[in-house]
């Protein structure tokens, strides 16, 4: 293989990126994918500069190694492009994540794409590029580092959040709440939320524990259930960056326990929360021995110290799930009482409505938190692989998005 | 080996490749060069970190912990030896010494490529 062959390979990846399909239903999704395309093309430009630079060197003993390195870099970039443009997750997952980011990061520039990978994680193209090129100066005969620096800066300025999902879960809609954990990392970082945790025990896995707390308090038992179901498949011990699997179940259990103590949830949600609690308790009982008592105590302490801050922060943006549920019931009653000709578009759907819609096979334009938390009872836990639930959730998110788009357009027109 | 670690390893591969290029150029030009400087920025901890990748964040579950294998330890030693030589490269009397070092490091790189995991 020669440097010319490497350049040919880069051109072929370039063509692949240019031809990557953008036939997606939602405009914000298409815009993000277009931005990603541009960034990947810029990234490719950097590799071309490197290749041209190396080609000018006289390397009798080492050109083979250089060509191999460039081929590996090119093939890796091609895989990253595939992760994004060939992701099989349903487009409606974008609606869930976008709603979440809109709620929490309204004033921040945010573009994101979903990518298929071997696990749930969050990164950005800028971060990936930095990891790759950090400390690696431009080849000597190149015109200097300036041109590469400009492109790198460009990429960082229009950086895109990449939220990866586990490819094994691509068609499991009930795992989508886990995408919110990854999206929350972005919010945690941009808002420097570690400042709120200053009194918590200084453990290396604090961020992960707090993010679980934030997301469960925002999204409710549906997140706890998704997390426990996923962690049961992939249990893990405590590591530098993550609390143990049992500790994370324990965090969700504490949340559910407190939720039950409040006794303010409407039916049938109060019964459903008990079902989720029982499921998590069973999982935790089976694994709690693997967690040293000291870690359990630290987790418990973190929960007690951070709970107030977590709730306050969610209140700044929206409402914690239990308040939201109560408020939804209240608004639903009010709308019913004064139902007029605009009833359909002002309709507020509760968990019991969503369950009824599901039984009738009609998608419900309900808030995503309500939709997902309608499928947490023991009955639905047993139907976890039933495709009817996935289709219903997907179609409901679509309908809810459409309703919001209509209301926004109507509000704009009336101005 | 996880994604973040994999990228770090590619970064490490990049800097070692610069070490190889730098030695190759030195053999013909007999002057120190930017590639060798790049190679010397590589630290032992970075290599260990990339192979273990235990500190990776922003993922739902942590990467599996791994231990440095014998192969990786021998790779680390080879890089250290090459860096020691590069530090005193201006004073090395025989090209043969640089050529041996270059060949050893190149052979190790082949092994590292072979062990790079699939995505």
Provide an overview of this structure.
The complex is a heterodimer of chains A (415) and B (119). Chain A has 415 residues and is mainly alpha-helical. Chain A has two domains: 3-171, no CATH class; 198-415, no CATH class. Chain A is 66% helix and 4% strand. Chain A contains 18 helices and three strands. Chain A has helices spanning 3-19, 27-55, 63-85, 92-104, 125-133, 146-157, 177-190, 206-219, 221-233, 245-262, 269-287, 293-317, 321-337, 343-346, 351-360, 368-372, 378-381, 387-414, and strands at 112-117, 121-124, 161-166. Chain A is globular and about 80 Å long. The mean pLDDT of chain A is 90. Chain B is mainly alpha-helical. Chain B has one domain. Chain B has five helices and no strands. In chain B, helix 1 packs across helix 2 (34-40), helix 1 packs antiparallel against helix 3 and helix 4 (70-87) packs antiparallel against helix 5 (95-115). Chain B is elongated.
How much is the average pLDDT of chain A? 90
* Quaternary structure: heterodimer
Strand order of the largest sheet of chain A: 1-3-2
For the largest beta-sheet of chain A, the strand count, sense and barrel status come to: 3 strands, mixed
Radius of gyration of CA atoms of chain A, rounded to a whole number: 24 Å
Radius of gyration of chain B: 15 Å
Q: What structural category do the secondary elements of chain B indicate?
A: mainly alpha
Portion in beta strands of chain B: under 5%
How many helices of chain B?
Answer: 5
- Kindly give the count of domains of chain B: 1
């Amino acid at each position: 293989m020669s440097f010319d062959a490497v350049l040919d390979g880069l051109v072929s990846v370039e063509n692949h990126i240019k031809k990557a399909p953008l036939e997606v239903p939602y405009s914000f999704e298409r815009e993000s994918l277009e931005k990603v395309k541009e960034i990947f093309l810029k990234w490719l430009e950097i590799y071309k500069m490197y290749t041209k630079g190396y080609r000018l060197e006289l390397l009798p003993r080492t050109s083979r190694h250089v060509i191999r390195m460039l081929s590996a870099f090119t093939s890796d970039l091609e895989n990253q492009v595939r992760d994004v443009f060939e992701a099989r997750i349903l487009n409606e997952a974008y609606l869930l994540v976008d709603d979440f980011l809109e709620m929490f990061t309204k004033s921040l520039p945010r573009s994101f794409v979903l990518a298929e990978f071997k696990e749930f994680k969050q990164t950005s193209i800028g971060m990936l590029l930095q990891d790759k090129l950090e400390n690696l100066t431009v080849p000597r005969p190149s015109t200097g580092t300036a041109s590469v620096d400009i492109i790198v800066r460009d990429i960082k300025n229009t950086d895109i959040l990449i939220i990866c999902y586990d490819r094994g879960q691509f068609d499991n809609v009930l795992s989508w709440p886990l995408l919110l954990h990854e999206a929350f990392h972005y919010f945690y970082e941009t808002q420097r939320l570690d400042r709120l945790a200053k009194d918590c025990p200084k453990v290396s896995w604090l961020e992960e524990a707090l993010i679980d707390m934030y997301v469960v308090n925002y999204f409710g038992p549906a997140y706890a259930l998704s997390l426990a179901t996923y962690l049961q498949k992939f249990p893990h011990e405590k590591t530098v960056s993550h609390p143990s699997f049992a500790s994370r179940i324990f965090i969700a259990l504490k949340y559910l326990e407190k939720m039950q103590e409040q006794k303010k949830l409407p039916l049938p949600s109060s019964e459903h929360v008990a079902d989720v609690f029982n499921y998590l308790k069973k999982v935790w009982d089976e694994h709690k021995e693997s967690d040293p008592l000291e870690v359990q105590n630290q987790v418990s302490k973190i929960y007690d110290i951070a709970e107030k801050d977590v709730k306050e922060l969610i209140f700044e943006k929206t409402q914690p799930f239990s308040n939201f549920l109560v408020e939804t019931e209240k608004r639903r009653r009010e709308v019913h009482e004064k139902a007029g000709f605009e009833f359909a578009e002002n309709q507020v759907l509760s968990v019991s409505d969503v369950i009824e819609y599901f039984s009738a096979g009609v998608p419900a334009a309900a808030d995503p938190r309500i939709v997902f938390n309608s499928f947490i009872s023991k009955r639905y836990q047993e139907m976890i692989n039933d495709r009817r639930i996935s289709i219903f959730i997907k179609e409901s998110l679509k309908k809810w998005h459409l309703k919001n788009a209509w209301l926004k357009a109507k509000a704009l027109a009336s101005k | 080996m996880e994604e973040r670690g994999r990228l770090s390893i590619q970064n490490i591969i990049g800097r070692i490749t610069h070490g190889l290029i730098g030695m190759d150029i030195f053999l013909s030009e007999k002057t120190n060069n930017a590639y060798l400087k790049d190679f010397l920025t590589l630290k032992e901890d970075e290599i260990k970190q990339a192979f273990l990748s235990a500190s990776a964040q922003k993922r739902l579950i942590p990467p599996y912990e791994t231990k440095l294998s014998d192969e990786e330890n021998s790779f680390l030693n080879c890089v250290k030896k090459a860096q020691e030589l590069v530090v005193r490269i201006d004073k090395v009397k025989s090209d043969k010494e640089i050529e041996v070092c270059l060949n050893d490091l190149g052979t190790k790189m082949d092994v590292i490529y072979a062990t790079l995991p699939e995505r």
